[in-house]
Write a structure and sequence with these properties.
2 copies of one chain form a homodimer. Chain A is of the alpha/beta class. Chain A contains 8 helices and 11 strands. In chain A, the strands form 3 sheets. Chain A has a 5-stranded parallel beta sheet with strand order 2-1-3-4-5, sandwiched between helices. Chain A has a 3-stranded antiparallel beta sheet with strand order 6-7-8, with no helix packed on it. In chain A, helix 3 links the parallel strand 3 and strand 4. Chain A starts with a strand and ends with a strand. The mean pLDDT of chain A is about 90. Chain B binds a DNA duplex through helix 8.
Chain lengths: ~230, ~230
Amino acid sequence: MTRVLVVDDEPSIVRALRINLTARKYEVSTASDGASGLAAVARDRPDVMILDLGLPDMDGTEVIRGVRGWSSTPIIVLSVWGQESQKVAALDAGADDYVTKPFGMDELLARLRAAVRRAAPAPDEPVVTTGHFTVDLAAKRVARNGGDGNVGLTPTEWQLLEVLVRNRGRLVTQRQLLQEVWGPAYETESNYLRVYMAQLRRKLEPEPSRPRYLLTEPGMGYRFEA
Amino acid sequence: MTRVLVVDDEPSIVRALRINLTARKYEVSTASDGASGLAAVARDRPDVMILDLGLPDMDGTEVIRGVRGWSSTPIIVLSVWGQESQKVAALDAGADDYVTKPFGMDELLARLRAAVRRAAPAPDEPVVTTGHFTVDLAAKRVARNGGDGNVGLTPTEWQLLEVLVRNRGRLVTQRQLLQEVWGPAYETESNYLRVYMAQLRRKLEPEPSRPRYLLTEPGMGYRFEA
DNA sequence: CCTGGCCGTTAAGGTTTCATCAAGATCATC
DNA sequence: GATGATCTTGATGAAACCTTAACGGCCAGG
């Protein structure tokens, strides 16, 4: 039975969610502010968390960071319409998805299912092959196809490549990359990214100046394409 | 059976709607002012609401806001011709679509079907496909069908497209778009919209000068149709 | 018929962001 | 303490982007 934690300070929403989720065989626990929400995550270990951004005691992104410090429980964020920057901040902080209030129950349930499914035992393919090289995530090895021997990557280069390959096909924001590789304090040092992306491209791309696998999306981030 | 709530103070219109809707197997309930309309929404939980803006007791946008506080039931607004600003205000408040009086029954029924269909089970994955291209909200990727490679969108273009796609099938006012993409301070810079809509159409539409998916609603806003 | 408002389109300017290079700082190892 | 690899930092030219203004088409109202 899937456990859901609802953190919202509006009783009507909490009630509606409790009724609908219970009817669909979810196990529901609730909290009405950020502090007790964090406590509830630690206590109940929910499989997924629904979090309202407009809590009375603390900022929603603070709650997300508090959870993400030690848990990867999927988080679906509820936000009122028009607070675009808030939503972006929440996603950057580690939220998995968002729904704007007012929401349709069907939509929320769909996103809930999707979030739980994504979190399920990741059938991670540990080896990714492109037309020119092969990345083995488990063995931490990169080898050029046809050519022998493996490509030597420095620790930082490897971490960067790993994040990109794990999100292959998807765009990864600069902030996310910096946060995962260098830590939260380096969110703005986009210079590092450029230097290391250049090094990766020099070592992996057939034409480093015309990237084919490690793509730049100007203003947004990078994408690994296999 | 689909439940429709009609809120209008003109008996002739209520009667005409009741007859036509009942004949087409809708279950109809009615109310003649805003207050009882709100009560009826809470009591009957209609699948869709048809709301006249010219009610005796309260402003139409007030009714919409009252509903939107806790429900996302689709709302189709009826307004007399010429009250453009009223319609925009209603859409901004959260209405889904509008029909100007006098209206053709066929048109109203079409919009009714569209609104109900839209509210039905939302797709699990945030991937929207049209006849000519596919939008993946999670991966931030747009690909032309058949053609390979993805279409390169700038950050602003992407944000604009995202708002439209998330509200697919439904009219989004200029103000809403400007606020979500550029921020509350740019509510009147409708020039930006024209420039970026043109760019999106050039990149996505098969015939940019004859839009098929990114539609203009003159005086109101834009609509993404899949 | 003319006028004004709204929309679509285009192009140029200024600004931000990106790629590349190279030199200093840091770290691990011996 | 010396050495080599790795990581930071700064500078520069190039590319992409955002903004802004101008022009023309279309439609409605006078």
